[in-house]
Automatic annotation (TrEMBL):
The keyword Nucleotide-binding applies. Pathway: Quinol/quinone metabolism; 1,4-dihydroxy-2-naphthoate biosynthesis; 1,4-dihydroxy-2-naphthoate from chorismate: step 5/7; Quinol/quinone metabolism; menaquinone biosynthesis. Residues 14-346 form the AMP-dependent synthetase/ligase domain. It catalyses: 2-succinylbenzoate + ATP + CoA = 2-succinylbenzoyl-CoA + AMP + diphosphate. It comes from Salimicrobium halophilum. Its EC number is 6.2.1.26. Converts 2-succinylbenzoate (OSB) to 2-succinylbenzoyl-CoA (OSB-CoA). GO terms for molecular function: ATP binding; o-succinylbenzoate-CoA ligase activity. Residues 391-463 form the AMP-binding enzyme C-terminal domain. Belongs to the ATP-dependent AMP-binding enzyme family. MenE subfamily. This is 2-succinylbenzoate--CoA ligase. It comes from the Bacteria.
Length: 482
């Protein structure tokens, strides 16, 4: 057992009047005020029957009350089950039952989704969490070995599983990130990723572990992000490729202040074309690799290597280890270990041994830098050759007019499988794609089919559903690009 002071209480003691959370309108909440509100919320929840180790589900977009509820539950020692607001009622029903949640708290905009769940468990709106009840014996210490959150994986195949995160997983994730990216007294992290995903939630943890101000946005708006950088002193942002693309479209080189030092890019391999565009706009992008099971990032490109190792996810963080099940320079499965790696899933298999098999494929260059090739299950085997979709996607992303690109394997009588490209965008020409393939890819990697799609289908975690694309091909629902 490793015990330490409660993170929020400690920051309230050390710097009570410092802004914990700031908002676009200029309002803010200090660490002292955030602690007070969170403890009052703990009292309200206690009076509703919440006790230590109870499983309490939260269904909410980015809402200020979310923070007070999460910290309030931590003061009670309850476990937080994070639900994705993009899920259907049926999907939510599966998850609350699987997680054995006794209470569901929801932000009012989600009221329609929860009506059908009322027969399964107690359901309460944020708007009904009122009062100033206090509870004696709140937990002022944190046991790093205790489970704090349960977060469901995407479930692109089969039913999703609840990843168990201990306080220690969150602690070491935050500390490892700081050792990699550095931390200054003036740092301010912009949070606009969904708080129910690990990337957004990890920013909340950095807030109370570092004692760092965060600027809280309800969603991503590129114009507001730019204002935050130029006018409100934001120095760091976490985001995914589509956010970076939208930001690049509205900024000029001179818009990026010298104080802004990091766009932490996750959510899957980024194309070199995108990274080069960011570099041209003076946006310092640090590609990172991680997943829900690793409590966000586990490898990140160090700032000093960002230019010369463009496209790499860097090296394992200070407290983590990483290796590839293949010879150096060859693609194999990425294996990871470290105190931020979850021990397993609720009511399901636990990790055996030190290393966790990620299911992602990648390789290490001669200096040990990680390059992510894509998911193991997405690998295309064509005539005995292994083809990784990300490699083709990187090449085609630079074609004029292409807005989105995905590559998946489709059945072929001769080769077993062949790559098919799925593109969206205006005025995309087939000839341009073929020309780019001839110059950038071995012949066996050229897409045998190029399909036009209005937009790529995605799941609730915004991951492209490649299986769905293949099904659309099999059903004859897509036309080839002319």
């Amino acid at each position: 057992m490793t015990v330490m002071p409660h993170w929020l209480s400690k920051q309230s003691f050390l710097q009570p009047d410092k802004s914990a959370v700031e908002y676009k309108d200029g309002s803010f909440v200090t660490f002292r005020e955030l602690e007070r509100r969170s403890k009052e919320m703990a009292g309200v929840l206690y009076n509703m029957g919440v006790r230590e180790k109870d499983h309490v589900a939260i269904l909410s977009p980015n809402d200020p009350s979310f923070m007070e509820i999460v910290y309030g539950l931590s003061y009670l020692g309850a476990r937080v089950v994070l639900l994705n607001v993009r899920l259907t009622s049926q999907e939510l029903l599966y998850q609350v039952n699987d997680a054995e949640a006794s209470l569901l708290l929801f932000e009012p905009s989600q009221s329609d989704k929860v009506e059908s769940l009322r027969e399964e468990l107690q359901v309460v709106s944020f708007s009904d969490l009122e009062g100033k009840a206090t509870v004696p014996g709140l937990k002022e210490e944190i046991d790093l070995d205790e489970v704090f959150t349960m977060m469901y994986t995407s479930g692109t195949t089969g039913n999703p599983k609840a990843v168990l995160h201990t306080y220690g997983n969150h602690w070491f994730s935050a500390i490892s990130s700081a050792l990699n990216l550095g931390l200054t007294q003036d740092d301010k992290w912009l949070l606009n990723l969904p708080v129910f995903h690990i990337s957004g939630f990890s920013t909340l943890m950095k807030n109370v572990i570092y004692g760092m101000t965060i600027e809280f946005h309800e969603s991503f708006e590129e114009d507001e992000v730019l204002r935050s950088m130029k006018e409100r002193g934001v120095t760091m942002i976490s985001g995914v490729s589509v956010m970076l693309e939208r930001l690049i479209d509205v900024v000029a080189k001179e818009d990026i202040p010298s104080s802004f030092r990091c766009f932490l890019l996750g959510g899957g391999p980024a194309t070199k074309h995108l990274l080069e565009r960011a570099q041209d706009k003076n946006i310092p992008v640090f590609q990172t690799y991680g997943m829900t099971e690793t409590t966000s990032q586990i490898a990140t490109l160090a700032p000093q290597d960002a230019v010369r190792k463009l496209g790499s996810a860097g090296k394992a963080l200070a407290t983590a280890s990483l290796y590839i099940e293949a010879e150096k320079g060859y693609v194999g499965e990425i294996m990871v270990a470290g105190p931020m790696v979850s021990e397993g899933y609720y009511k399901k298999e636990r990790r055996q041994g030190r290393f966790f098999a990620t299911g992602d494929m990648g390789y290490l260059d001669e200096e040990g830098f990680l390059y992510v090739s894509g998911r193991k299950k997405e690998m295309i085997i064509s005539g005995g050759e292994n083809i990784y979709p990300a490699e083709i996607e990187n090449v085609l992303a630079g074609v004029e007019g292409v807005e989105e690109i995905a590559v998946a394997g489709v059945s072929d009588e001769t080769w077993g499988e062949v790559p098919a490209a799925f593109v969206s965008g205006r005025n995309v020409k087939r000839e341009a794609i073929i020309s780019r393939c001839k110059h950038g890819l071995a012949r066996y990697k050229h897409p045998a089919y190029i399909f036009r799609v209005p937009q790529l289908p995605r799941n609730a975690s915004n991951k492209v559903l490649k299986r769905r694309l293949v099904e659309m091909v099999e059903a004859g629902d897509l036309d080839e690009l002319e």
